[in-house]
Amino acid sequence: MVNPVMKIVNQKAKFDYELGERIEAGIVLNGAEAKSAYGGAIDMTHSYAKIMPSKFKGQREAWVINLHIYPYSHADNDKYDPKRTRKLLLHQKELLSLETKMRTARLQLVPTAMYTSSGKIKVELALSRGKRVFEKRESIKKKDLDREMERGSK
Asked: What is the CATH number of the domain that holds 149?
């Protein structure tokens, strides 16, 4: 059976950050989390990714923090933590290049989307810089002007 296509986009990230280079990563989920994610029960509004040292010498690991996956309705959810830290699957070369870019340009890794690709759940990460309050106000004004122009043309 082919799994249906699922895609959840983090709209808050587009508003709060200037998004740059994007990268696709796998994510480690348990069975009930995967079923819930396939159903689209995900909240990515306050989530971010971090690269930390591994327990293996010289290795690095990427983790997504604060990604809320709602409990699966048909599973035993007594000890389930919906905001637990989940591991991202990236190659060491990718982690090294991301880490150097993050350090030199003072960027952050933010999950922008979660989707299925050939039956596997993937997370799209973006190297981003946080917007300031006045930049957020400008983007709101631009959206309002675009909406008014759209109404005027109809």
From this structure: 2.40.280.10
Single-letter code of the amino acid located at 63 = W
Tokens of residue 22, six digits: 């994007």
> Measured in whole angstroms, how far is the alpha carbon of residue 137 from the centre of its chain?
24
* pLDDT digit string, tens, across residues 64-89: 999 999 998 888 888 888 899 999 99
SS3 68: strand
Question: Is the residue at 2 inside a domain?
Answer: no
> Which amino acid is it at 86?
R
Whether residue 101 contacts residue 21, with contact meaning beta carbons closer than 8 Å, is answered with: yes
Q: What are phi and psi of 6, to 5 degrees?
A: -125, 135
Residue among 137, 120, 105 at smallest CA distance from 24: 120
